Amino acid sequence: MTVLVRPVAAHDEAQWCALYAGYRAFYRLPDDPAAVRTTWQWVSGGAHGLLGLVAEDADGRLLGLADLRRFARPSSATTGLYLDDLFTAPGSRHRGVATALLHEAAAVAAAEGASVVRWITAEDNTAARAVYDRVAAATPWVTYDMRPSAV
Q1: pTM over 0.85
Q2: What does the CA dihedral 49, 55, 58, 60 come to, rounded to 10 degrees?
């Protein structure tokens, strides 16, 4: 299967939203069309430093998506790209879609002079981690989340 990876375009909205709803369902997030629409607006408009990539087949059918965000790295005085979301349509898995999206993310990072492409995934997401282990190195860092609160 031929996979073309390119930046997201306005005409991708319906297919992108369906893929992103699938991404949310995969991570057991509640069905929330408003969140999907808001994220589409951010990604398609470049808000918050976001850059959307999509993978499509020869017929223009979207097979997967990757949402990247630029971030500063004060400790190295460089910038990086953070991969917020990566999703491949279930019927397109094991065909190189995720790998193609990751390679394009690396190419974008190189073109922008970024020092790293970074992401997190669920520890039990073994299928994705098998792909990630082929293209990147896992780090020893542990991730924490803190709820915002007034002191």
Answers
A1: yes
A2: -60
